[in-house]
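User: Okay, second chain of the day. Same drill as before: sequence in, C-alpha cells out.
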Amino acid sequence: MTELQIVKGVKNGDREAMRTMYDLLAGSAMATAVRYLGDSDECRDVLQDCFLRAFTRIDEFSYRGQGSLRAWMTRIVANESINRLKRHDRLTFLDEENVEAPEEEPPDINVVPLEEINRMIAALPTGYRVVFNQFVFEHKSHKEIAHMLGIRENSSASQLLRAKRLLAKMIHQYKREHDD
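Assistant: Same drill. C-alpha cells below.
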C-alpha cells in the first residue's frame, strides 16, 4: 500500500489500512518518542496515544506526497512527548556555564553506532534534549522552539550549544573507550 492508499483507507475506517499505517510508522514514531522521553514504558504510552490521535484526526491530515504521513506522525509524537514532559514538570532548562567545550576537532559520528547516538541523545538533560531534537530533527528555528517551550530565543540557542558540547564529549569518550 502507498501512503496515499493508507490515508484513504484510514479515512474510510479500514482496519487493515490502520494496521498497515501502524506497521509502517511505529518504529520511527517510537524512535522519536525515545529521543524526547528516554523511558521506554512512557514511550509506549505516548505511541498508543499518538496513533489513537492520528486515527481519529486523519481528516485533518492533508497528503502532500510520499513521506508526508511519516512527517505528520513525527510531529504528533514530538508534540505529545513535549506536552507529557510539561505536564509532569520534567521539562527543565539548565543554565550551567561550566559545560566543557568539545575537543578541537568535531567528533566523527560515523564511527558510533546509531543506537549509541540515540542513547547519548536520550541521556542529555531534558531541556538540552528537547531543544536539540526540535532544532536538529524537527528543523525548528530558535524562535519557534522558544515560542513552543515558553522560553527566550537565546535560551533555546544556549541549550542547543550545551547539548552539542555534551554530545561531543560523550562521542569522544565513546571513541576513546572503543578504540582499543
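Residues 167 and 173 are 10 Å apart (CA to CA).

User: Thanks, on to the next one.
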